[in-house]
Design goal:
Radius of gyration: 28 Å
Number of helices: 16
Number of strands: 10
Oligomer: single chain
Structural class: alpha/beta
Strand order of the largest sheet: 7-6-5-8-9-10
Distance between the termini: 14 Å
Strand content: 5-15%
Order of helices and strands: EHHEEHHEHHHHEHEHEHEEEHHHHH
Amino acid sequence: MKDYHISKHNSFYTIGLNYKKADAEVRGKFSLDENAIERILEQAKLIGLDGLLVTSTCNRTELHGFAQHPYQLIKLLCDNTHGTVEEFQEVAYVYKNNDSINHLFRMGTGLDSQILGDFEIISQLRQSFNRSKKQQIANPFLERLCNSVIQASKRIKNETDISSGATSVAFASVQYIINNIPDISEKNILLFGTGKIGRNTCENLIKHTKNSHITLINRTKDKAERIAGKFNLVVKNYGDLQTEIRNTDVLIVATGAHSPTISKELIYTKKPLLILDLSIPKNVSDNVTDLENVTVIHLDHLSQMTDDTLEKRKESVPQAEAIIEEVKDEFIKWLETRKFAPVIKALKKKLKTMKDEELDFQSKKLVDFNSVQADIISERIIQKITKQFANHLKDTEIDSDTSLELIQRVFQLELETK
């Protein structure tokens, strides 16, 4: 990337881990909350990084940024999570330059999601960029790349069937409940946690189960009440959690806490209880599975579900990939223009110097010389000349590197360096 004059660092890297090699427990060690992400961005600026995106979801944690070496990014991640470098290396991936760009396109358009076509990641990517921009660690490359990925995502969603039907983990969890709990419309359902996944699950439950026996509990009660009011549901206090678990048939846990919120000691039930843990890291203790009549299903299991809808979505993958290539080509063309921008800038500066010298000479030589009019005409000529050179360099038929070298030599240009 050094030829594109975007960053003082030579390469653009993606370092991270996802559901493909890292199970829920390992992903939990490397998950990042808002405060941890803010710390990473601050620390990145302190060590001289000038472009960084951080994304952390239930399925992946990734850092995308410019660095001298990927270990700079790996260390930032490990220093701000419970995971070690050794654990990271066992399950990690590192992409560089074009491979990193390709990965970001596939990730942001749902082709690399645990459930194919899950478009929730694009809003998280947009949020990541806005956070980096606010922290002043987002450069033009990152802005253009994120906008291109968002554009590709919109086109894939609108022009293909890859998003047909519901595609989220929330929908998969409701599908599982419907398929495994008889007479679900008559069962008691308890939703613990009303974050984004919790809200989406709640909406899917109401839509697909026709169940009116849904109770919400959240540590912050007013947050649960806002959602309950929308759907006319019951809200209980956090202190009532144990009692409500005893009365429920299905417990959905989506608290997003960094340690288990449901333990063996909370559960006393003589009837079958299905627990769905939709959190990363796990919010249901492993020892809960020791209890009789209790079944615990984790997010990873739900994400592996394949049905006719998912199989149909796979048919749209080639069309989605073609859209990605089209949008990515536009991005690469823009990137190529960055390569010769310093030369065009230096050429314009050199021509203006020549113009100023000539106008100064003519103004002293001619009594009735119109310097204002001459300056306007000269500026227009300079614009036309530099535009002609820029169009020449954009031509895919020519060797731009050779042309750049020739222009620099002919005009004896001095390029600005960072």
